[in-house]
Design goal:
heterodimer, A: mainly alpha, 10 helices, disordered N terminus, B: five-stranded mixed beta sheet, three-stranded mixed beta sheet, 34% helix, globular
Chain lengths: 209, 337
């Protein structure tokens, strides 16, 4: 994880401890992690709902701050956990967002591909649409692990803290999720499966999407 | 070779999410509005029925807690407390904070003084893993008087001088033993665990005054708080800083037992990592326990938004005036790390 969670001179756990007696200290935690939590939720349910859920995440964290047991300096995994639990009540919004991402992923790849690479770009677009659909079809547990690790960049340990499960469970869920995605990609129509790896310049273009 | 995780990243990054300042501000404003309305967490300020929403704990734990809450408030530097920097031995005998790191801001485990060395008591807590989790070797510990109160802090791997704190005052050991003996006597007279008797306010006042006299605390006073028709049974909490013992009104053993049994039943089936507790199931559990105890007319309501996977259990709060038990977040539901 790239974000340490340190909010300057004091750690998150210190801020949380201080906020028991001085609730306004909690605002430092909000300022430190507002962007990250909002982006995480917006990716999964869209910006509008993400805003609501981010505020709710911090409110729940605030109400629960007396029970914070994190010995690590960063409260971010804990906040991810609260946010992830909130998502469970918004499955429909997440489904809509995943469908929107599927369309957007295709467009983004097509726009990124140069004229010379148009075939590769179209293939990649189809593949991403397929992957987006496959992500939507995963169980919530599997999707949580996948997003936290692949997109949010959490370590196995931090993902385990966020999800409240042992490290081993995170690894096995991730493994199953990857397997599901691989199977899904394998079910792509032959016309949409690249026969050869795309040329380096095309691959570069695709990855910009 | 297809890297599924890279594909997942591409999908989720297809729509660039920019954290617009307006988003940030909206979130911040909404959170800070609630924060501004919040009060410091200070359980001592809310004993008895007037508290309304004080988290329920088993009776024995509540009495112990009553003995430490006021000093704990000092530990947490709670707002409204103006603590004199008095360091006389008789005034630093109540509670001990075992700190997890050599800082006043680190997490703490607050325990009652039993009259033995604070360092030894905290060393036991370290060995039990209740201060900073499991440790192979207990660090060297230093016992100091905290700057704004009369509470003792025990810190690892440092000295009182480094923390700009005073060491324990002369005569602390004998004062602590005397104080612990008085407290133990009151526990035996007013009861502590699994009480089946209910000591009245009048009887409790008499017992407390007698104990203070016996153990030489003649300048101490006794104050009462929270007695009423719903809370006729006495509990107590020593407050060395203010030279007083607070006698508080508590519920009847039948009611306390109903709440405690439901709480324990939930605790037994609810631990961090579990799915969040279902509000309806928790309500049924508590309502059934109250009904069995003869309080079937009480209402139980669970807040659906306060449990998480990390903290999935409900704790109960009692509001006697509305005959309502509210289920919500309670740190008492979780063991110390």
């Amino acid at each position: 994880m790239t974000t340490s969670g340190d909010t300057g001179l004091v750690s998150d756990s210190e801020i949380l401890a201080e906020s028991l007696a001085n609730p306004e200290r909690f605002s430092a935690l909000v300022d430190a992690h507002n962007d990250i939590i909002f982006r995480y939720l917006a990716r999964r349910v869209g910006a509008s709902m993400g805003e609501d859920l981010a505020a709710e995440t911090f409110l729940r964290a605030f109400r629960a701050r007396a029970g914070y047991r994190g010995s690590r300096s960063s409260a971010l995994p804990w906040l991810y956990g609260i946010a992830t639990n909130l998502l469970r009540d918004h499955a429909r919004s997440e489904h809509r967002q995943t469908q929107a991402l599927a369309k957007l992923a295709g467009h983004a790849v097509r726009e990124a591909g140069s004229e010379d690479c148009v075939d590769d770009a179209l293939t990649a677009a189809a593949r991403l649409r397929h992957v987006a659909a496959a992500i939507g079809a995963l169980t919530p547990d599997a999707r949580d692990v996948l997003v936290l690790i692949a997109v949010e960049g959490l370590s196995y340990q931090d993902a385990a803290i966020a999800l409240g499960v042992p490290d081993g469970t995170v690894r096995s869920r991730l493994s199953r999720a990857r397997l599901e995605l691989r199977r899904s990609i394998a079910r792509l129509p032959p016309s949409e499966v690249p026969q050869d790896p795309p040329a380096a310049e095309c691959e570069k273009g695709i990855s910009r999407g | 070779v297809v890297d599924e995780l890279d594909l997942v990243r591409q999908v989720y990054n297809a729509e660039p999410i920019s954290s617009h300042p307006a988003h940030r501000q909206t979130i911040r404003d909404r959170v800070l509005a609630e924060i501004a309305a919040a009060k410091p967490i200070c359980p001592a300020s809310a004993p008895g029925p007037s508290a309304g929403a004080a988290p329920r704990r088993p009776r024995r734990r509540r009495i112990i807690a009553a003995a430490v809450v006021l000093p704990t408030a000092g530990l947490l530097a709670a707002a409204g407390w103006t603590l004199a920097t008095i360091r006389q031995a008789a005034q630093v005998t109540g509670s001990i904070g075992c700190y997890a790191s050599p800082s006043l801001h680190s997490s703490i485990n607050v325990i009652n003084s039993t009259g033995t060395s604070p360092v030894a008591l905290c060393a036991q807590q370290w060995q039990a893993g209740t201060v900073a989790g499991p440790v192979k070797v207990t660090p060297s510990l230093a016992a100091c008087v905290l700057p704004k109160g009369n509470v003792i802090g025990v810190f690892p791997d440092t000295t009182c001088a480094k923390l700009h704190l005073q060491p324990l005052p002369p005569g602390y050991a004998s004062a602590a033993k005397n104080f612990a003996a008085m407290r133990n006597q009151l526990v035996s007279e007013l009861g502590e665990s699994g009480n089946t008797t209910c000591v009245s306010e009048t009887k409790a006042l008499s017992l407390v005054r007698s104990a203070l006299h016996t153990y030489g605390y003649t300048a101490w006073k006794v104050t009462t708080n929270g007695f009423g028709s719903f809370t006729p049974c006495a509990g107590f909490g020593p407050d060395p800083e203010h030279h007083q013992i607070v006698v508080v009104g508590e519920e009847t053993p039948a009611f306390a037992s109903a709440i405690n049994s439901a709480t324990e039943a939930q605790r037994a089936s609810c631990k961090p990592g579990d799915p969040p507790e279902r509000a309806a199931a928790a309500e049924t559990l508590f309502h059934q326990a109250l009904k069995t105890a003869g309080y079937g007319n009480w209402t139980v309501t669970a807040s659906p938004g306060v449990t998480t996977r990390q903290q999935p259990c409900y704790g109960a709060s009692v509001n006697a005036s509305t005959h309502t038990v509210s289920l919500g977040f309670s740190m008492a539901m979780y063991p110390l790390p």
